[in-house]
Amino acid sequence: MLDLIREIGQAMRNNKLRTFLTGFAVTWGIFMLIILLGMARGVTNSFAERTSGDRSKRLNVYSGVTSKPYKGFKEGRWITPDVDDIERLKADNPDLVESVASYKYLGSTDIASVTDHISKSPEGVYPAEQEMYRIPMLYGRFINDADLRSLRKVMVIGTDDAKTLFGDAEKAVGQRVNAFGLSWLVTGVYDHEWLSDVYIPFTTAMAIGGTDGKVSNLQVKLKGMKTMEDADRATSEVRRSLARAHDYDESDESALYMHNRFSSYLRESQSFSILNMSIWIIGIFTLLSGIVGVSNIMFVSVRERTHEIGIRRAIGAKPRSVLLQVVLESVAITALFGYIGVFLGMTVMQLVDMAFGSSDFMRNPTIDISIAIEVTIVLVMAGALAGLFPALKATKVKPVEALRDE
C-alpha cells in the first residue's frame, strides 16, 4: 500500500501543471456546491425558525364580502368576525381548536407622559400575540391573562416610544401615560426589529371601542395537525361554524378570508426540499466538468505509461492491481483538490454567517459534519468514476505490445 501511495505521489509530481489545472476544475465545482448548499441551508434555517413550534399551526380569519346569495340575503354583504366567535369555535370544534385569540385596533390617539407625547393606534391583544410575533421584552412584562379578566388599563410599548415619552426605556416600566382620556400603567417595554405597536389588553380595547363586538380578526390555534388533509379539514370545520353563526353559504370562501398557516408551512417545506435537491443536482453537474477533466488526464496518463504497464504485466502484475492503481490515483486527485474546495467554501460561508447569519432571510448558513460527509462520499464516488474507464483501458493493455511501445 505504501508503494502504491508513493507511485501516486510521484505521478502527480511529474505532471504538476497538468494536475493543477485539472484539479482546479474539481476545486471550483466543490466550492460552488458548498456555497449553494450553505446558502440554501441558511434560508431553510430562517424558514424553520419563523415557523417553529406551534407558530405554524394557526388559522387566521379576516373580514370578507359574500359572493353568493343565501337565505334571502343578496351577495355583497360585509361579514366581520365578532368576539362571540372566540368561544363558539372552541365549543364547536374541541378536537381541532386548542384556543382562539384576536386583536382589536383602536383609532389613532395621543399617548402623553408628563414630558412628551406620541400619536399611535393602540392594539388590543391576547398574551399569545407575544409568541406569534416573537416579541422580546426588554423590561417588564407583556399582556397577561389577569389583565384580560380585569380589563386592566395597562400598556406595553416599544423602546423608541419609551425613550420619547420618558427619556430612558428602562425608566418607562411603572410609569403612567394618558390616552383616550384615561390613565394607563406601562407594564413592559419591548425591542423588536420592525414592530413598533402599542399593546393593551384585548378586553380593555373592546370596552373602549364600543359594544358592537366586532374584532379585527380571529387567530385560531389548531391541534393534531400533521398532514395537508388535517389542515384542510380544520379550515372546512371552522368555516362551517362561522357560516352558521353569520348566515352565509359555507362554500362561499370570500365571505370570511382564511389563511391556514399550517397549509402554507407544508407547501413551503416541500418547496425547500425541492430547492435542496435542485442545488445538489446543479452542484453535481458543476462538479462534473472537473470530473471529466480528471478522466481525461487519467486517459493521457495511461497512454504515457503503456510501456510501464506492459512491464508490470510481464512480471506477473494482475489486471486488478493495475486497475486499482489508476482508480486510486484518480480518487487521490479528486479528493485532494475537492477538499481544498470544501475548505474554501466553508471559510466563505463562515464569513457570510458573520455578516448575515442573524438576519431575517438567513440563519446560520454554515455547513455541518453531515454535509461534509455527504460531500466526501460524492468526492470518492466521482473520483472512482473518473478513473474507472481509463483503468479498464489500462487492464486491456497486452504485455507484448506494450513492451514494443515507444
Automatic annotation (TrEMBL):
<dbReference type="Pfam" id="PF12704">
    <property type="entry name" value="MacB_PCD"/>
</dbReference>
<feature type="transmembrane region" description="Helical">
    <location>
        <begin position="20"/>
        <end position="40"/>
    </location>
</feature>
<keyword id="KW-0472">Membrane</keyword>
<feature type="transmembrane region" description="Helical">
    <location>
        <begin position="277"/>
        <end position="302"/>
    </location>
</feature>
<feature type="transmembrane region" description="Helical">
    <location>
        <begin position="369"/>
        <end position="389"/>
    </location>
</feature>
<feature type="domain" description="ABC3 transporter permease C-terminal">
    <location>
        <begin position="281"/>
        <end position="399"/>
    </location>
</feature>
<comment type="similarity">
    <text>Belongs to the ABC-4 integral membrane protein family.</text>
</comment>
<feature type="domain" description="MacB-like periplasmic core">
    <location>
        <begin position="19"/>
        <end position="234"/>
    </location>
</feature>
<protein>
    <submittedName>
        <fullName>ABC transporter permease</fullName>
    </submittedName>
</protein>
<dbReference type="GO" id="GO:0005886">
    <property type="term" value="C:plasma membrane"/>
</dbReference>
<dbReference type="InterPro" id="IPR025857">
    <property type="entry name" value="MacB_PCD"/>
</dbReference>
<keyword id="KW-0812">Transmembrane</keyword>
<dbReference type="GO" id="GO:0022857">
    <property type="term" value="F:transmembrane transporter activity"/>
</dbReference>
<dbReference type="InterPro" id="IPR050250">
    <property type="entry name" value="Macrolide_Exporter_MacB"/>
</dbReference>
<keyword id="KW-1003">Cell membrane</keyword>
<dbReference type="Pfam" id="PF02687">
    <property type="entry name" value="FtsX"/>
</dbReference>
<keyword id="KW-1133">Transmembrane helix</keyword>
<feature type="transmembrane region" description="Helical">
    <location>
        <begin position="322"/>
        <end position="349"/>
    </location>
</feature>
<dbReference type="InterPro" id="IPR003838">
    <property type="entry name" value="ABC3_permease_C"/>
</dbReference>
